[in-house]
């Protein structure tokens, strides 16, 4: 259970910072958004979306829905990095690493998810 909370915590801390930075339109968030080919006007909406997805993920009753929402959002991030030709391991796959932390952390701390998605079949 604690391992799951720690894994989830790493992703949550990063995503919380990212959502807040986008919502507040910090210079770093503005620069990154423009470099990815998006207008600055999308920042607040992206920040709100990230914070809502995070809240849904953090509530135990809706955590699986939150992980599903994050999977979709992070899939868009992967597509964006591929579109602009960013490096594979440091940029394109970074959302995959975050999704792995979110899902593995949730799987370790949520017995209902382990029952639904077992790592091995019981004979």
From TrEMBL:
In which compartments does the protein localize?
Answer: Membrane
Membrane-related topology note: Multi-pass membrane protein
Which keywords belong to this entry?
A: Membrane, Transmembrane, Transmembrane helix
InterPro entries in alphabetical order: DoxX
Tell me, in one coarse class, where this protein mainly resides.
membrane
Entry superkingdom: Bacteria
What Pfam families does the record tag this protein with?
A: DoxX_2
A single Gene Ontology CC term = membrane
* Segments traversing the membrane: 38-59, 64-82, 88-108
Annotated protein name in UniProt: Membrane protein
State the organism named in the record: Hyalangium minutum
Q: What is the lineage of its organism?
A: Bacteria, Pseudomonadati, Myxococcota, Myxococcia, Myxococcales
């Amino acid at each position: 259970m604690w391992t799951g909370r720690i894994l989830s915590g790493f992703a949550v801390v990063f995503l919380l910072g990212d959502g807040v930075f986008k919502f507040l339109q910090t210079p770093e968030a503005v620069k990154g958004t423009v470099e990815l080919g998006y207008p600055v006007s999308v920042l607040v909406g992206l920040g709100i979306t990230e914070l809502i997805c995070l809240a849904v993920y953090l509530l135990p009753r809706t955590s699986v829905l939150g992980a599903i929402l994050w999977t979709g959002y992070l899939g868009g991030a992967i597509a964006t990095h591929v579109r602009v030709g960013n490096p594979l391991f440091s940029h394109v796959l970074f959302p995959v690493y975050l999704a792995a932390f979110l899902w593995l952390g949730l799987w370790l701390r949520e017995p209902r998810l382990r029952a639904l998605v077992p790592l091995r079949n019981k004979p």
